[in-house]
Design goal:
The structure holds 2 protein chains of 2 kinds.
Chain A: H1 17-27, H2 29-62, H3 66-116, H4 118-123, H5 126-167, H6 169-216, H7 218-224, H8 227-279, H9 285-297, H10 299-327, E1 345-347, E2 352-354, E3 359-363, H11 368-375, E4 384-386, E5 389-390, H12 397-400, E6 401-404, E7 413-414, H13 415-419, H14 425-434, H15 438-444, E8 451-452, H16 461-475, E9 479-483, H17 491-504, E10 509-513, H18 517-522, E11 525-530, E12 533-538, H19 540-546, H20 548-555
Parallel strand pairs in A: 3-10, 3-11, 6-9, 9-10
Antiparallel strand pairs in A: 1-2, 1-4, 4-5, 7-8, 11-12
Helix pairs in contact in A: 1-10, 2-3, 2-5, 2-9, 3-5, 5-6, 5-10, 6-8, 6-10, 8-9, 8-10, 14-16, 14-17
Chain B: H1 8-20, H2 23-52, H3 58-103, H4 107-113, H5 115-157, H6 163-206, H7 208-213, H8 217-269, H9 275-317, E1 334-343, E2 346-355, E3 361-365, H10 372-379, E4 387-392, E5 395-396, H11 402-408, E6 409-412, E7 421-422, H12 423-427, H13 435-444, E8 455-456, H14 465-479, E9 483-487, H15 495-508, E10 513-517, H16 521-526, E11 529-534, E12 537-542, H17 544-550, H18 553-562
Parallel strand pairs in B: 3-10, 3-11, 6-9, 9-10
Antiparallel strand pairs in B: 1-2, 1-4, 4-5, 7-8, 11-12
Helix pairs in contact in B: 1-9, 2-3, 2-5, 2-9, 3-5, 3-9, 4-5, 5-9, 6-8, 6-9, 8-9, 13-14, 17-18
The chains are: A alpha/beta, B alpha/beta.
Chain lengths: ~550, ~575
């Protein structure tokens, strides 16, 4: 059996949900063909059973020949063995196709999230993207798999019709025309079902997002209250889902009724005609039983076709969401083609110029975050150049210029790899030392063998912040931009970090947005930005002495 | 340490209670389905009469077959719609009870298990259970009724002809038992691997910015693929179980048909049964296969749904971390006595004593990891101490109901989760309040963010971390408890603003007892008293001036800051 997952999920067609489904099915064409083949085999074995039963009745029972009865019973038994074998193979192939489609979608969306970066959160709620994993991948797996079985079912209908034509042309024609009629009659019922299921799907998505949101905010709620409010809100959403689910159930119930009624009426027609022909001696009693068996058997493949239609509707909704995510493009990809020369980071709008190889501290008050985003190419504003090249055109911008924000998350997994995926423990240890995070690393179990559990939620805010700083330092980019990197650590530790940061980044360019006098005093160069413009720059001590505005801003904190 | 999982017996008992909560609806569904099945069983019997004697009453019998088909269709529709409505009702009850219980879980338990565990239960397990209730339960119910009544129909046709079916039954039962015994564990493993896959996926999605900024896409890709491989290994195992069970299952459907045909034929040849009896019995036995197959293959899903149910119910198994005794605190004086607290069997607080003076502002300082936040959580009554007690008016905090506690003591941390809701709903967590009161609370924290009707949080208008912290403080102003614990509650706001914010808050919260855990020394400087926490103990306690004068570790800290 083939192994999963595929190393490379491939390049999907994302021009529309159907195209995507088609692509997904196409990537597993051979296994899908196996599903169809085994399904056809099984259905055929099943389809031949009524004929064998008919012969057994004709030759064995009404013909009063115990030997013939035994022979046909043995043939029936053989068909049973064949059925058991093909069904098992079909199931195996079906599962493979299902998982392959589901895994492939997870791979695609996961890789796309990494590509989109900050753009993802701006365009779509994370709950909705996570819903792809919790719901949509399963539906996509099912739709691809059921399509394989539907092909087998459709072909088996053809086989039965051919056999029937051999028994009696008139009865064969009735079934030949009757089966498409049955399908056509059930068709109009699918529209309302799709609409109702779509409605239920949407409401369920919102409800799941609410549940996740509540769980994620449990700490906030526990501290101050509000559980009752959110419980009420969830109940209201849950009741909306219930009502939508009942409506969808009613719509589906008509399809269930149709699945009994239309094939049943066809069966009645065949039985009625067959009984007349049998009475007239045109067909045997055994053939009448066989015809009855065929008309009854046809329910099964028809049911599969109905299921396929239903799943296609669900799959279409799921595929639409996946396509929506896969079609997004990063707003600020940072993948230009021009090589910067020299390393000056320069913002003509604010007048900020960052000298290469130095530790620059910027005091910018509440504009710090926005300015840091501008400086690192996360906004549409132009006017910022790195080595003379506008940021959007810089080759490998994200690799060269790293903006480590306090919103960054830690990932669950081995600690060493989280700090730096590749590289020596020596590099990691030096970064940990510079970020004063030795105690955090020790608590987590050391660089070798230590783990970040639960996205670092077990650590305190200050511990997380120091780990994030260590990670940023270990990445060792040409330019590192930090915003309030010590906001959650105590004064003692902050002083130590300030002292070690410059030494660790020696020869590299570092920009720290901070208000902390400890960090400012350790910087090579300090820039004061007010209302988006540079108003003073120099060393901390010089500015304290010569720039009253700066002193007011920095010292108001400590009186 | 994962959250507990309910036992199979508990899950079964709960499922029974849940279903029996609506006895009339359930009886209705079963009755409709029985009638639908009986209508369906009339068809082979009528057909057998045609076979027995093809020349007679063809039109009448055919018309009867048509009539019963129409009847069966209508009853099937009614049964399905009714079972869907019942299922949705049960599902709604179940998920609402689950969320209600999740909201009351002890926070320490959730954190130790990881939020992901609870998140998986809230999403995947609820989904799986919905699938089971929506598909498996009606199918098992409907098929079960069909199988039972079909067997009755065979027995009524000719008791002897039921023998082949009964003879094969042991094969069916034994193979199914063999399979189901192994299947549950296989599915639970499958489930766990899938949850791990989903965890990695969710982290990649929520941390997309970080992944892109740090160029971790390769790492995330490898992790995702590794998790997929692990999931695939588990899936392969359970697939192996099914590939052994399915052949036995298929044979159990066909062998009775062969047996009934043979036995019926021989009995007919010896004149013991009529042609109509052989035909009807053979057709009935043949018809058994379909509902039987649906019923047995849905047992998988039902088991899976049962496992999800056990995981949802497990949440209710967490022992409560508080046991309200009905005691009413007589005063507002908060005190800690010889308090110890352990994370993972390692004490982080080693016997802390602290008496808060009502109305005072106490700053708690100390190095990272010294136990400040833990102390804050204990003082706010979020967790109970391992030994010792935190009392309010001599009543232990864990003896108070959560709501009663938070009217008195509230905790705001640097955690800045913003709910996906309007700003109004985010603010009025604790109580409904008119808009001008909400605006006043926002004004008290110098709010400059979006208006009350703006939808914020994930997918809405994003708040900056600083805005999120202001929002948290505004909630506090609105809640107005007599004691507040602020754990780095202004750490994400720029320091200068933070200080003025703390001062304006001080005015609004005048007369309230405030415990402010802070690393910025101006907070300590502005406080009435300062407690220094080092290595899980309070090492210094007094006013700012006293501590500076004492020349201890606080004085050294102050010196560093003012250098």
């Amino acid at each position: 059996m083939r192994d999963l997952p595929a190393g490379d999920p491939g390049a999907p067609s994302v021009s529309g949900p159907w195209r995507f489904l088609g692509w997904l099915a196409g990537t597993d064409a051979s296994v899908l063909a196996a599903v169809a083949g085994w399904s056809l085999g099984g259905m055929t074995a099943q389809a031949l059973m009524p004929a064998v039963l008919g012969r057994a009745i004709d030759e064995g029972i009404t013909g009063r020949d115990a030997g013939a009865l035994g022979v046909w019973a043995a043939v029936l038994c053989g068909l049973g063995l064949l059925l058991a074998f093909t069904r098992t193979r079909e199931h195996k192939a079906s599962v493979l196709v299902w998982l392959s489609a589901a895994y492939r979608t997870v791979q695609l969306v996961s890789r796309q999230a990494g590509r989109l970066g900050d753009t993802l959160a701006r365009r779509i709620s994370s709950g909705e993207v996570i819903a792809v994993g919790t719901g949509d991948v399963a539906k996509l797996g099912t739709v691809v798999e059921v399509c394989g079985r539907a092909v087998g079912a459709a072909l088996s209908i053809v086989v039965v019709t051919v056999v029937l034509l051999g028994i009696d042309v008139r009865l064969g024609l009735v079934l030949l025309l009757g089966v498409p009629a049955v399908l056509a009659l059930s068709g109009p019922l699918l529209g309302p079902i799709h609409r109702r299921q779509g409605e239920r799907r949407e409401l369920t998505g919102t409800m799941t997002a609410t549940a996740s949101d509540i769980v994620a905010g449990l700490r906030v709620l526990r501290g101050i209250g509000g559980e009752a409010l959110f419980e009420r809100r969830f109940r209201a959403e849950s009741q909306r889902v219930r009502a939508a689910g009942a409506r969808a159930g009613r719509a589906e119930s008509w399809l269930n009724a149709a699945a009994v009624l239309f094939p049943g009426l066809l069966l009645t027609l065949v039985t009625w005609l067959g009984a007349r022909y049998a009475a007239a001696g045109e067909i045997t009693v055994g053939q009448l039983v066989a015809c009855y068996g065929y008309a009854a058997f046809l329910v099964t493949p028809l049911w599969v076709l109905g299921e396929a239609a239903g799943q296609l509707a669900k799959g279409h909704v799921a595929a639409a969401r996946v396509v929506r995510i896969l079609r997004m493009t990063p707003e600020h990809p940072g993948d230009g083609v021009r090589e910067p020369s020299g390393g000056e980071l320069r913002d003509d709008v604010s007048g900020l110029r960052v000298r290469p190889g130095s530790l620059t501290a910027v005091v910018a008050g509440r504009d710090a975050g926005a300015l840091a985003e501008r400086l690192t190419g996360y906004t549409d504003d132009s006017g910022v150049t790195y080595g003379g090249v506008p940021l959007a055109e810089v080759k490998g911008l994200r690799r060269r210029v790293l903006y480590a924000a306090n919103e960054d998350v830690l990932f669950t997994g081995p600690l060493g790899a989280e700090l730096l995926p590749e590289g020596s423990d020596d590099v990691r240890a030096r970064a940990v030392l510079a970020a004063c995070a030795e105690d955090v690393v020790a608590e987590a179990g050391g660089l070798q063998g230590g783990r970040v559990a639960e996205a670092g939620r077990e650590f305190s805010g200050g511990q997380r912040q120091r780990l994030r700083l260590a990670r940023a330092l270990a990445a060792d980019p040409e330019v590192l931009v930090l915003v309030e990197p010590t906001s959650a650590v105590d004064a003692h530790t902050e002083a130590a970090i300030a002292a070690r940061l410059g030494a660790h980044r020696a020869g590299r360019t570092t920009v720290v947005f901070t208000e902390s006098p400890l960090v400012l005093a350790a910087a090579d160069h300090v820039v004061h930005v007010q209302r988006g413009k540079v108003v003073a720059e120099g060393r901390h001590a010089e500015l304290m002495a010569g720039a009253p505005g700066y002193r007011a801003e920095v010292t108001r904190e400590i009186k | 340490m994962k959250l507990p999982i309910a036992t199979a017996a508990q899950a079964k008992a709960y499922a029974r209670r849940l279903v029996l909560r609506y006895p009339r609806a359930l009886a209705g569904v079963v009755a409709l389905q029985v009638l639908a099945t009986v209508s369906g069983l009339a068809v082979p019997w009528l057909f057998a009469q045609l076979v027995q004697d093809p020349g007679r009453r063809i039109d009448v019998l055919a018309a009867s077959i048509a009539a019963f088909t129409v009847l069966q269709a209508l009853l099937t529709r009614a049964a399905f719609a009714a079972s869907a409505a019942l299922g949705e009702r049960v599902l709604a009850d179940l998920r609402e009870e689950f969320v209600g219980q999740a909201l009351r879980l002890p926070l320490a338990t959730v954190e130790r298990a990881g939020t992901g565990d609870l998140l998986t239960r809230a999403s995947r397990d609820v989904d799986l259970l919905e699938e089971a209730v929506r598909d498996a339960v009606p199918h098992v119910l409907i098929s079960g009724v069909t199988v039972l009544f079909t067997a009755v129909a065979i027995a009524l046709t000719s008791p002897l002809l039921l023998l082949p079916t009964l003879a094969v039954t042991p094969l069916l039962l034994l193979s199914t038992r063999w399979y189901l015994r192994r299947a549950l564990n296989a599915y639970l493993t499958e489930d766990e691997r899938w949850a791990e896959l989903l965890d990695a996926f969710s982290e990649t999605v929520t941390g997309a910015r970080t992944v892109a900024a740090f160029g971790r896409d390769g790492q995330r890709r490898d992790l995702t693929d590794a998790r997929i491989r692990a999931s695939w290994t588990a899936e392969k195992y359970s697939l192996g179980l099914r590939t052994r069970w399915y052949p036995a299952l298929e044979l159990s459907y066909v062998l009775p048909v062969v047996g009934t045909l043979l036995l019926g034929g021989l009995l007919y040849l010896n004149g013991h049964v009529s042609l109509a009896q052989v035909t009807a019995a053979t057709l009935y036995v043949q018809q058994l296969g379909y509902p039987l197959n649906i019923m047995l293959t849905q047992l998988d899903d039902l088991q899976l749904g049962g496992a999800s149910l056990a995981r949802l119910l497990g949440v209710a198994e967490v022992p409560p971390d508080r046991s309200p005794t009905g005691a009413d605190p007589s005063g507002v004086d908060l005190a800690a006595r010889d308090v110890r607290y352990a994370y993972a069997e390692r004490d982080v607080l080693h016997g802390v004593d602290l008496d808060l003076v009502p109305g005072e502002r106490l700053a708690v300082v100390g190095p990272s990891g010294a136990g400040k936040s833990t102390l804050g959580r204990l003082l706010a009554g979020i967790d109970g101490p391992r030994t010792g007690a935190v009392t309010l008016g001599s009543v232990p905090l864990t003896d108070l109901p959560l709501d009663g506690l938070r009217h008195r003591i509230a905790l705001v941390t640097q955690e800045h989760h913003v709910f996906h809701a309007t700003l109004r709903d985010n603010l009025a967590l604790v109580r409904e309040a008119p808009d001008d009161e909400l605006r006043a609370a926002l004004d008290a924290v110098g709010w400059t963010g979006p208006g009350l009707d703006t939808v914020v949080g994930s997918g809405g208008s994003a708040l900056t971390p600083a805005e999120a912290q202001r929002l948290a403080l505004a909630r506090l102003v609105l809640a107005d408890p007599h004691t507040l614990v602020l754990d780095e509650a202004t750490s994400l706001i720029d320091p200068r603003t933070a200080r003025s914010l703390e001062r304006s808050l001080g005015a609004v919260l005048h007369g309230r007892t405030v415990v402010a855990i802070a690393h910025r020394l101006h907070t300590a400087h502005d406080a009435d008293r300062v407690a220094v926490v080092e290595n899980g103990k309070i090492t210094e306690l007094g006013t700012h001036d006293e501590l500076v004068g004492r020349g201890g570790s606080y004085a050294a800290l102050w010196e560093t800051w003012n250098r």
